[in-house]
Write a structure and sequence with these properties.
Keywords: Hydrolase
Largest sheet: 5 strands, antiparallel
Pfam families: Peptidase_S13 (PF02113)
Structural class: alpha/beta
Radius of gyration: 28 Å
Shape: elongated
Family: Belongs to the peptidase S13 family.
InterPro entries: Beta-lactam/transpept-like (IPR012338), Peptidase_S13 (IPR000667)
GO molecular function: serine-type carboxypeptidase activity
Number of strands: 17
Strand content: 15-25%
Strand order of the largest sheet: 2-1-17-16-15
Number of helices: 12
Length: about 475
């Protein structure tokens, strides 16, 4: 079979040489623009392997890779889709067009839509308004805090619970600094939190109830600090075990009241919630980091709360409604507009927490390849054994420091979509989604990437390229 493929490729190469090296029929002998048989001298022999590198490499390397992956997957409990590409050529696939529960690889879809609809430089703005302008630094009356959807605000006490100590967050005390810079010294009335930018649905209705405990995702609100956890309102900079999901907008203003008082801005009234008057006057604004940084945090740390609030912002900007449903509709329209095939995509949230979500490996691969081509996401994919959600995975394995991939993990779901830099110098792009109850949990996906590290064993493509002509 190998000899047949080599001979066929050689014949094809020889035919091309004859066509382009022969003068055109009926052409004038005086036409100096024509290529004649003596115009160029090929330095690569017509029957050299250099004239058909893809054929030779695929013939020698692909079967070995396929056998290795098949041997591994045939022992995995459950169902799996896989697709692996090298330089745009599919070198392995298994059920790649079928849909599976993708878990957090769904965030790739959210990220691409957010970049398209919201823009890399857009920001979430937390606004302070009052019924009248302050005099001599005093707001005589209530101060309203209008949430802009910023998902990354946290106090130093809450930072202690991060699984990754290097996880990015926005320092909540800078909210108070914005008022300081506006010259505010005291507020005679109440501090009122307004989270009306989005709907008041705190949890996607189809999520399991267990997501409401354990920090899987915050009670969703446009006014959020510390992922809506209790325990930080009075001592925001101290670690605590008294954490549970609470009333997000109320916790925000309660924590802010404490921080303001600590910075010398006295709040005479209480912290409560309500909607700001339509004609209220702007006092100050705090802007988040750019959307590109928000999305990078979302992908690297697989931040469910960030994904869901970004989805609601997508819905607000594209459909005029800050809801999950509007965000999903706008996201799917964006993906289709960008050229992704989404006919079989089932999207029920922005984070991938819903077990009713469905995505194929083909779409997952297309999304992660698109993400990798965006300069805004240059550092967004976790690196095996080094950072993000892969920080504690792929340790002391062939994949350590060699695999960059978006992870997806739920009960019975393990997924990866990304890139594997092989020891032979090639970069394989891949998508892997496993649905099942294999006892190795994330080891299923990590074992798959270790198989990629052992390929290709055929000659490197750069060594097979045709030599330049003389």
């Amino acid at each position: 079979m190998l000899i047949r493929k080599i001979f066929a490729a050689a014949v094809a190469s020889l035919s091309l040489v004859v066509v382009f090296a022969s003068p055109s029929i009926g052409a004038s002998d005086n036409d100096s623009n024509l290529i004649t048989p003596t115009s160029v001298t090929p330095t690569t022999p017509l029957l050299s392997a250099r004239r058909f590198p893809g054929v030779l490499q695929s013939t020698s390397a692909d079967p070995e890779l396929s056998a290795s992956i098949d041997q591994f997957l045939n022992k995995v409990v459950g169902s799996t889709c896989v697709i692996v590409e090298l330089d745009g050529r599919t070198v392995y696939e298994r059920r790649s067009s079928e849909t599976f529960v993708p878990a957090s690889t769904m965030k790739l879809a959210t990220a691409m839509a957010a970049l398209d609809i919201l823009g890399a430089d857009s920001k979430f703005s937390t606004r302070f308004v009052a019924e009248k302008q302050p005099k001599n630094g005093v707001i005589d009356g209530d101060l309203y805090v209008i949430g802009g959807g910023d998902p990354l605000l946290a106090t130093s006490g809450y930072k202690t619970v991060f699984d990754d100590p290097d996880q990015f967050y926005e320092d909540f005390t800078k909210i108070a600094d914005a008022l300081n810079e506006a010259g505010i010294r005291s507020i005679t009335g109440d501090l009122i939190g307004d989270d009306s930018r989005y709907d008041d649905v705190r949890w996607v209705s189809t999520w399991p109830a267990r997501y409401q405990v354990g920090g899987t995702v915050a009670p969703l609100s446009a006014l959020l600090v510390n992922d809506g956890n209790t325990g930080y309102t009075d001592t925001p900079n101290e670690a605590t075990t008294n954490r549970k999901a609470g009333d997000s907008p109320l916790l925000f203003v309660q924590t802010l009241r404490t921080v303001l008082n600590s910075k010398g801005i006295a709040v005479g009234g209480v912290a409560t919630t309500g909607q700001a008057p339509a004609d209220a006057e702007e006092i100050s604004t705090f802007d988040s980091v750019p959307m590109s940084e928000v999305l990078t945090e979302m992908l690297k740390n697989s931040d469910n709360t960030t994904a869901e609030l970004v989805l609601k912002e997508i819905g607000l900007q594209a459909k005029g409604q800050g809801t999950t449903a509007a965000g999903i509709e706008a996201t799917k329209e964006s993906l289709k507009r960008q050229g992704f095939s989404i006919d079989d995509l089932v999207m029920l949230d922005g984070s991938g927490l819903d077990t009713g979500n469905r995505m194929s490996c083909e779409l997952s691969l297309a999304l992660v390849e698109a993400v990798s081509q965006k300069p805004e996401f240059s550092d967004a994919l976790p690196l095996g054994g080094k950072n993000g959600t892969l920080r504690k995975r792929m340790l002391a394995t062939p994949s350590t420091g060699k695999v960059r991939a978006k992870t997806g993990t739920l009960n019975g779901v393990n997924a990866l979509a990304g890139f594997a830099d092989t020891p032979r110098g090639n970069t394989l792009s891949f998508a892997f989604i496993h649905n099942g109850t294999d006892p190795r949990t994330t080891g299923v996906a990590d074992g798959f990437t270790d198989r990629l590290m052992a390929t290709p064993k055929g000659p490197k493509i750069t060594l097979l390229e045709p030599l330049p002509v003389k």
